[in-house]
Amino acid sequence: MRVNCLHVAIALIALLVRRSVGFSSTTGGDTFRSSYIEISATAANDDRASYIDNDATISEDNPLRVIIAGGGIGSLVVANSLCINPKMSIQVLEKTDQSKRLAGPIQLGSNALAVIQEMDSSIFKNITSSITSIGDKVNGIKSGITDDWYSQFDLASPCGDIPYSGVMERQTLQQIYFDALPRGVVEYGDAVVSYEINSDGYGVRAITESGRIVHGDCLIGADGIWSSIRSTMRDEPVRGEGSGCTYSGYTVFDGELAYDSIDNGEVGYKVYIGPKQYFVACDIGNGKYHWYAFMAKPEGSSIEEDKPNGTSVYLQNIFDGWAHDIKDIIQSTVEKDIGQRDLYDQAPSKKWTDGNVALLGDSVHTMMPSLCQGGCQAIEDAYVLVEELNSVSSRDEIEIKLRTYARRRVVRSAVVQGLSRFASDIIIRGFDTPAKIRKIEDGTIKFENCNYAGVVTKLLQPILPLFFGIQFTFLFSGWRNNSALDLNSALRLLLVGGAILLICSGIVEESALFAGLGFEGLLGLDLDINIGSVFKTSNDVFDISDIVDAFVHKLVPNES
To answer: I need a surface site. Which of 81, 138, 291, 348 has the fewest CB within 10 A?
Structure first.
């Protein structure tokens, strides 16, 4: 790229890293803080020798002691891979009882399946025998009112030689990983509520809900959106105002049922769009479907909003006049199988580590479920973290390896967070039934839904397939995280996404639109990047990747 493109390139990067995302600032509920200050360390079993006096060299006789807070998918992937290494000692501490693990399906994108395949071929084989492929089927957006296809996704072409996306029961996925672990690695029923770092030697003290102290060389906080590890690391509440996690402005209803759909086996998932809400139906295999109804509601509406005739009737009324399939699916779902939850997310942050402590998954990059990438990004975290920890030969290296993990993941995960929020805002706030002009039998012209939102939705129709192709290429091609950001895909996302932003600028406020860039939490710091350093030769040719590298090193430096 020549020097006369420098200002354009810098402007693009500046747009990525300087614009405010505008995530919802609405919060609610009480403020909660970690309860470690109420725990008496002297009353707990506190072996100071195991905490401080430990040789730096890692060996089979003196293994690296890794504590993982949380027993979700990301932590189980980490534990499974590290347990293979004889120089590792792994302990997973999960809050809930084993019988209370999260139910419902999880969508595994091609990027997540590629990671699993590379990390453990036997685990991958067990997963593929239980998964329902959707990447080789028709997927896309339909008009919620007319039931016509609006735009279809191509999930196959962006895959290349990696597996197609699929969906499976979350409990089945967890059980596959749990069964592969040595007995005793996962402990249920005692959550980590705080930690302390030893400043006089090697070690982290993980303090549990029961008051027990667990000693390790490093601690991984994979304890979900309301993370006690993040709370301790950033000195902020676990939840509520100041926690970094805010109500998105959206609530979701969901349900599961056996359903004889007319397009069963041909269509993977359908997103029905309409004014201020949308409905998703996904084939999860064996004649079953899982559905979601997203809408803009005040926080706490699941409790405060009156539904005298039950949730099913409530939803049937909301989607009255929409496609017949939607009402039929809702009616066919047993009332007790319909749930509702408010959706929370957090702005991207540069604070992933604290000494020998690191965050993983929802604890550091909670995202909207629009792209089904929450679990997938946790699996990518696990892949990079395992690579870095497996390369540690001395305890002196742990901190810098965790920072390298953060540098490799911080920008890509932030972009996925932003894209997920972008998708929710555009679909709910921007889309409507597409405008249509048609000639009826008597020869007159009929204008249908030719309001501003309907016209905008129609204008976006030819652009979206291009955007989806770029988006899924970005998601599926960068799973190794060898560089901070896939610049080729990112710049194409920016250009095509920018066109969508311009078209939608009249119906969605700017703060929501720029959520798609996903960088609010990475902003506000003085980058102090020497632009002159990116020039490679005397003829002023430069490599734009150096700007990104400089940015990432400013976010997560090698040294304190």
So the answer is: 138
Question: What integer pLDDT is reported at residue 507 of this predicted model?
Answer: 56
In whole angstroms, what is the distance from residue 307 CA to residue 340 CA? 12
For the record, the structure tokens of 415 come out as 């972009």
Q: Which residues, at least 6 apart from 37, have a Cβ–Cβ distance to it below 8 Å? A: none
At residue 270, the 3 state secondary structure works out as strand
Match 């705080």 to its residue by tokens: 194
pLDDT at 508 over 60: no
Q: Which has the minimum average pLDDT: 68-72, 110-114, 118-122, 343-347?
A: 343-347
C-alpha 176/C-alpha 124 separation (Å) is 10
Range of lowest pLDDT (11-25, 200-214, 424-438, 499-513): 11-25
Nearest residue to 181 via CA among 61, 76, 283: 76
Angle subtended by helix axes 110-119 and 121-128, to nearest 10: 140
Supply φ then ψ for residue 513, to 5 degrees: -60, -45
Of 107, 78, 219, the residue nearest 166 (C-alpha): 107
pTM of the model as a whole: 0.83
Residue among 467, 183, 514, 233 at smallest CA distance from 347: 514
Strand partners, 67: 91, 219
Q: Centre a 10 Å sphere on the Cβ of residue 445 and count the other Cβ atoms it contains.
A: 8
User: Which residue is listed with tokens 């209803």?
Assistant: 253
3-state SS of 297-348 is CCCCHHHHCCCCCCHHHHHHHHCCCCCHHHHHHHHHCCHHHCEEEEEEEECC
Rounded to 10 degrees, what is the CA torsion of 446, 318, 430, 142? -70
Write the pLDDT tens digit of every residue in 393-427.
Answer: 999 999 999 999 999 999 999 999 989 988 888 88
Alpha-carbon distance of 323 to 150, in angstroms, equals 13
Q: How many CB atoms lie within 10 A of CB 204?
A: 23
SS (H, E, C) 43-94: HCCCCHHHHHCCCCECCCCCCEEEEEECCCHHHHHHHHHHCCCCCEEEEEEE
